[in-house]
Amino acid sequence: MPSTRLTELLGIDRPIVGAPMAGTATAPLAAAISAAGGFGTIGASTSRWTADRPDWLRAQIRAVRRVTDRPFGVGFILSYPNADDLVAVAIAERVAALCLSFGDPAPFIADARAAGIKTLVQVQTLAQARAAAAAGADAIAAQGAEAGGHTGALGTLSFVPAAVDAVSPLPVIAAGGIADGRGLAAALMLGAEGVWMGTRFVASVEWEGEAWRKDRVAAASTDDTIWTLAYDLASELPFPDGIGGRVLRNAFTDAWHGREAEIAGRRVELQRQLETAETDADPRDAAVWAGSGAGLIHAVEPAADIVRRVVAEAERCLARWGARVGAGPKDG
Prior knowledge:
Blueprint: H1 5-10, E1 16-18, H2 27-35, E2 40-43, H3 53-67, E3 72-77, H4 83-92, E4 97-101, H5 106-114, E5 118-123, H6 126-135, E6 139-143, E7 149-151, H7 156-167, E8 172-175, H8 181-189, E9 194-197, H9 199-202, H10 211-219, E10 225-228, H11 230-235, E11 244-248, H12 251-256, H13 260-263, H14 267-280, H15 303-327
Parallel strand pairs: 1-9, 2-3, 3-4, 4-5, 5-6, 6-8, 8-9
Antiparallel strand pairs: 7-11, 10-11
Helix pairs in contact: 2-3, 3-4, 6-7, 8-15
């Protein structure tokens, strides 16, 4: 695949960024994606702050470096209370890039730049894209509502090219519902310089989550996800207004989606219910964060195989359509 401005910016071979899924995109997944020519990331943030979290992140960064010398990054949810301390660790360790989301990236960009570190800022609106560009971001990840986990409300197909127009000449990374080479090819045609994929890597050998969650993603169809506030409200997750979570439908979403006003009054009960579900690995209540691209995923595979196949599929798509365009209209 020809280089893009994203591959040139990050010093990588393939224009695929592994999403920094909080707590589950750890060193093995980041290293596997980067070693395969993409850009792996560690998801540093967690809603459960503990004093040893900076030490955990430092150990994760060094674990990646024991496996590969390829570039990789660390991702942060800026609305979480521990963001400052964790960003400081990543800067001190001189990772290749910070991936910043769900908050104001401006306070972190200057320090990253002074350390020679790139900043990839994930946004859900054009206003956020413009603000991140004005703050000095090196690339913008335009995240559509098809994404798994936490996301906004705009569709990927319309949001990505709008973001490309809004922040040119900064490179834009397309995110949301992209799980195969057709999605990568489409993103490039929309003007993006690469893709940001999370759900596809949930169904990977190296993803840190439980096997039953991987299997549920691999078995899901495109119809099986829902964008909901139910889990965030029940668990009091600190995400900004306008952000919800896309998960696989289950008994919990069937019972509580659309009943936001009632959740606050029963929060203690619901938190206990969700904690039990996690302990028991009960998919009827436990969240499986996944995007609509889950319907394109059919097996749990090594992350390196996923990277290579997505790029090869994209190359075939682009070559096939290039040949059709080159052939021109038929006479008669």
